[in-house]
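User: I'm curious whether this sequence folds into something compact or stays loose and floppy. Could you predict its structure so I can see for myself?
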Amino acid sequence: MSVVILRWNPEISSYSMNRFKNAMEEARNSQNYMLNWSVWEHEKVHCGDRFFMLRVGKGKTGVVMSGRIVSDPYHDEDWSGKGRMTYYVNIQPDFLVDTERGVHLSIRDLEKAFPRYVWKEGHSGMVLNDSLGTKLEWLWVNFLYNAFTVSAKKNFASNLCETNTESVPKTYHYSMVVPLQLDLVKKKGAACEICGYDYEKVFDLTFLNYGGVQNIYYFFPSKRPVKNVRQNFHCICANCRNIYNDLRNDTNDGELLPFESLAKLKR
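Assistant: Here's the prediction. I'll summarize afterward.
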């Protein structure tokens, strides 16, 4: 799985600012908004890759979408009308952020975090190296968690679940992205923090989310604010996850519980 940068300049794009604002409303209402986008490095882009869309040009630039590429590249008519050979992919956002209306992860923030990469210029559909892609994923989830779990602001929309203060925790609990899974396994191991079951003794984790095992690390809400969202991710096996699900259904109407609610079961 690669992380692909898509670029959007609303001043020249056929995808207008009004279309983007309508997309946010559709995502809030349907949780199933999809669109297509042109990709330059189409030979390197594949179905299942992650994407981040950057608003570039003038105005309040920054990340306006993250999500998943849901098709292989295909050739179609040039959106600009110039007759160029143009390839597109279908994409499904998970989060959308309107940089015009409030807090956002700006191009300046990206330049500060990753000064060696040129963020504001270049083609749409550029593939990041694995290390940079993983670091961007962490920066993004940390931003989302700290910006949108206290209050669901008007410039924020979830496209996978209802847009509210639980959108980010629920998304990263149920749909943890592969680069973060692999990075956590690499740095913290793959043993369940409750019972000690070790996934690495059974599965080839280089194929995490593609083979016999899906999620290993899950996001859990915390009782108190955290500076680094990485602290909210815990490794938990399928059996202990079933206990956790039973516990939250019995005590919290099915809503997510802090990891500490399970820790007392550790043996």
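Summary: The helical segments are 17-30, 107-113, 130-148, 167-174, 178-188, 238-251, 260-263. The chain has two domains: 3-158, 176-263.
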